[in-house]
Design goal:
- The chain is α/β, with parallel strands linked by helices.
- It folds into two domains: 3-164, NAD(P)-binding Rossmann-like Domain (Rossmann fold), CATH 3.40.50.720; 171-291, Orthogonal Bundle (N-(1-d-carboxylethyl)-l-norvaline Dehydrogenase, domain 2).
- 54% of the residues lie in helices and 13% in strands.
- It has 13 helices and nine strands.
- It has helices spanning 11-22, 34-40, 69-76, 79-88, 100-112, 125-131, 146-156, 166-196, 201-207, 216-226, 236-253, 258-271, 283-291, and strands at residues 3-7, 26-30, 45-47, 61-64, 91-94, 116-119, 122-123, 134-138, 157-162.
- Strands 3-2-1-4-5-6 form a six-stranded parallel sheet, sandwiched between helices. The chain has a three-stranded mixed sheet with strand order 7-8-9.
- Helix 5 (100-112) runs antiparallel to helix 8 (166-196) and helix 8 (166-196) crosses helix 10.
- It is globular.
Length: 293
């Protein structure tokens, strides 16, 4: 039976777990909050209480679906864990978005312990994960492990591209996330303009996506506008983390973007609207209350 370990069973991790189980994989699940892992454990999967329990057999395949590079270091930078990594030589597939600079540091760190490390940041949200319809930017896969890694990627992602190295994979994911964030704000502004013009929701639904100005994130914002709810698909704090990575990348490239500054400000101001978790589409509320009163 094909077996994987999945670290991180939040919204995206849970959806990935269900997809992998439905595709015939067995899973060992670890989450810092054990209950979250136990809640999705079912036939062919087990929730483990200790991270060290993932390093039993040699060459385990471990998928990381956590918040950032700091979270990865918090898991591995422990003498006992590092010893187990050196003994078992895990094959690590990082689904998280950490940025190109951190990717280089993590790759060097894991290589020093004798582990294989491949970047595979994904886009498409939990709905895409459940359907196996994610997009993935893949770093260099060691030849010895292609037969184990590529089927996993194909199970998760309907579209993927393999880049020359891990750094490039993370750079492209960061740029994708920047475009997503910007497109969402632009879509919110466009929808608010239709309100000012007195257009009905039904008319907007038919007309807004008609031309080449449409985007996936225009569809996301339009659906939340037409069918309001408080569910959280992409949390605001994750979107702000992504924009911080984009800012760092732009600085490295010598690019000063007014669009990035404006977009970050919109999400930062939206974050102040509530102490409760908010979806990225909550930027519509801030824009409507502050800019378009």
């Amino acid at each position: 039976m094909k077996h994987l370990a999945l670290v991180g069973t939040g919204t995206l991790g849970k959806a990935l777990a269900l997809r992998l189980l439905a595709s015939g994989y067995s899973l060992s699940l670890y989450n810092r909050t054990f209950q979250k892992a136990r809640d999705i454990a079912q036939q062919r999967s087990v929730a483990v209480r200790a991270f060290s329990e993932l390093f039993i057999a040699p060459f385990p395949v471990i998928l990381l679906c956590v918040t950032d590079a700091h979270s990865i270091r918090a898991l591995f930078c422990d003498a006992d864990i590092e010893r187990k990594v050196a003994q078992t030589h895990p094959v690590i597939l990082n689904i998280s978005t950490v940025g190109p600079q951190e990717s280089e540091r993590l790759e060097a760190y894991f290589q020093s312990l004798g582990a294989s490390y491949t970047e595979c940041p994904v886009s498409g949200g939990p709905e895409g994960a459940k359907a196996g319809a994610l997009a993935a930017w893949v770093g260099k896969i060691p030849a010895d492990f292609k037969d184990r890694i590529i089927p996993v990627i194909n199970c998760m992602a309907a579209n993927s591209v393999q880049l020359d190295d891990n750094r490039a994979a993370q750079a492209m994911k960061v740029l994708n996330n920047y475009c997503e964030a910007l497109h969402l704000v632009i879509a919110a502004e466009a929808i608010l303009a239709t309100q000012r013009l007195g257009l009905s929701a039904e008319m907007v639904q038919q007309a807004l996506l008609l031309g080449r100005g449409r985007s996936v994130y225009m569809e996301v914002m339009l659906q939340r506008y037409l069918h309001p709810d408080s569910s959280v698909s992409v949390p605001l704090d994750i979107r702000l983390k992504d924009l911080a990575l984009a800012n760092h990348l732009f600085q490295t490239c010598g690019i000063a973007s007014p669009y990035l500054d404006y977009t970050r400000n919109v999400y930062q101001q939206t974050m102040r609207l509530s102490t409760l978790p908010q979806d990225q589409t909550a930027c519509f509320t801030w824009l409507s209350e502050v800019l378009y009163r």
